[in-house]
Structures are given as structure tokens and as C-alpha cells.
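Troubleshooting log. The previous structure file for this entry was overwritten by mistake, so regenerating from the original sequence record. Sequence copied from the archived sheet and checked twice against the printout by T.R.
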Amino acid sequence: MATAKFPEPKGEFSLSSMLAAARGLDFARPNRFEVHIFKPPGAHSSGGATTNPATGALNKFTNEDMRSFSMRCESITMPFRALTTIEDANIYGPTREIVSGISYAGDIDLVFQSTGDLGERVFFEEWQKQAFNENTWNLNYHKDYVSEVQIFLLDMKDVRKYGVVLHEAYPKTLNGVDLTAGAATEIIKTTVGMSFRWWQSLDENASGKWQVRQGPAHEIVQRNRNNLPPTFNTLG
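Regenerated output below.
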């Protein structure tokens, strides 16, 4: 049996060459991230309609509150995107698949370490109320309860290396909390299922025209590691 022949017989990616190329690279780490959550416009009353009890409920949460909530986000999932396809059989020979649309992940989970008053849970409860009227059960406008969520991947020096923005996001689900006679050191976690329509890269070098949105509390994010959970600690 004849041996296969190739123009370049020796493999390019040998173990030694891979190790040499890896030296000095700054690999991405899953615990180096930050999340920015922006409040929606909120429900409102107009035209003599019955006052919505949720109107103005989000005003009590300050920029500092929002910054605090963001810093206590323990975990989040980067969204994915997929091209949906259909079979193109109108050709001779083997068939092929062509793009027929775009599919985005509609929901991701955010897990927060909760403070004593469950302030994080209260905030998302009030956010959800911007979508409906508790007195009449009427639904509010979509634009009233959707906002943005930004996710940034950081390097070891807290420099942003990658970022995405979730468009038309809102807290679809607010998970229950199990109260048990567990260890006193356990911290209650608030898990929010965030729904969104689509996401986009925030890299100014990438295609697209979206600009990074920043509020006063998000202009400079300084992480005080003494007050952060171990999941945020710098890897050695």
C-alpha cells in the first residue's frame, strides 16, 4: 500500500510549536468579567388612565445601587448566535444548506449574591412590574420594560478585551429561593432569567454602529477585591 503524499509532509502544529506560541499569551479567564445593567424607561400613566402602581417604582434605585447590583453578579452566560439554514436542492450534485435566518439565544441566567434585604430581588421584582398593572392586569407597552445589559470580559489588569450588549432585555423569570437550615456561611443567590431579542459586539473596531452606553455610575468601574466573593479573585 502506497504512503500518502502531501506538499508539506511535516505537521505545522507540533506540541513544541504550540507550547512556544502559547508563551506570553494572555488567555481569557471565566472569572474576569463585569456586567452592567441599565434600568428600563418604566411604566407610565397618561390620558386620564388609572395610575399604574408600578409607575416610578424604579426611581428609588440609584446609580450606586445599580453599580452595586452589577458587581455582585456571580455568574452569567455569554449569549450565542446561530445561522438557521434550509436545504438548497436546486443544484446538480450534492445538496447544500444556505442561510435562511438568524437565531439568538433568547434567555440567559444571571446569578447574584444577595444582600440582607434581598435588594437585588426587589429591583428585578419592580422591573417585572413595569410590564403589567397589578390592579387591572393590563399589559404595558414593550418599550416601557425593555432595556440593555452589557457584558465585558476583562484581562488580569481589568482591561476590557471583549464586550456585548443585549438589546431589548427584561427579567423574564425570577427564580424561587430555597430557605433551609444550612450552614450559616451560605449566601442566598438570586437567579434571574433575562430575555432579550438580539445582541451585538461592543468592540469599536467591529462592524456596526452601536456605541457603548454608560451611566454616571458606570463611567469608571473600580473593583474592591476585599469586598468581592472568591469567584472574582485574580488567578495566580
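Confidence is low (pLDDT under 50) at residues 215-236. Archived copy saved in two places this time.
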